[in-house]
Design a protein that fits this description.
Blueprint: E1 4-6, E2 12-13, E3 19-21, E4 27-28, E5 34-36, E6 42-43, E7 51-53, E8 59-60, E9 66-68, E10 74-75, E11 81-83, E12 89-90, E13 96-98, E14 104-105
Parallel strand pairs: 1-3, 2-4, 3-5, 4-6, 5-7, 6-8, 7-9, 8-10, 9-11, 10-12, 11-13, 12-14
Length: 110
């Protein structure tokens, strides 16, 4: 409820207080979350207060987490982020990856 979808094509929003603005094939089922442009990006149900800006085929399942750009990246931890890059993943809380390819972070606070 209280969600919005503006522009784009074949997007879906089912999370409360969430949004998708533009892009295609994006999905948001997490509450208080949003995807802004890009394609094939998703924020899953248990991810709250998370955001994805641009990029392609990225996924967020952690709370208060983000992916900005890049492709085929995933964040499964809380309070974590990936900025750019490709085929990278963050599984450690309070951690981040900035750019690069095939990077992984599994420890907290890295």
């Amino acid at each position: 409820q209280y969600s919005v979808m503006a522009g784009g094509q074949n997007n879906g929003v089912s999370g409360d207080y969430s949004a998708i603005v533009g892009g295609h094939l994006n999905g948001v089922s997490g509450n208080h979350s949003g995807v802004f442009a890009g394609g094939g990006n998703s924020i899953i149900m248990n991810a709250k207060y998370s955001v994805m800006a641009g990029g392609q085929n990225n996924g967020v399942s952690g709370d208060f987490s983000a992916i900005v750009g890049g492709s085929e990246n995933g964040v499964s931890a809380n309070f974590s982020a990936i900025v750019g890059g490709q085929a990278s993943g963050v599984a450690g809380n309070h951690s981040a990856i900035v750019g690069g390819n095939l990077n992984g972070v599994s420890g907290d606070y890295l």
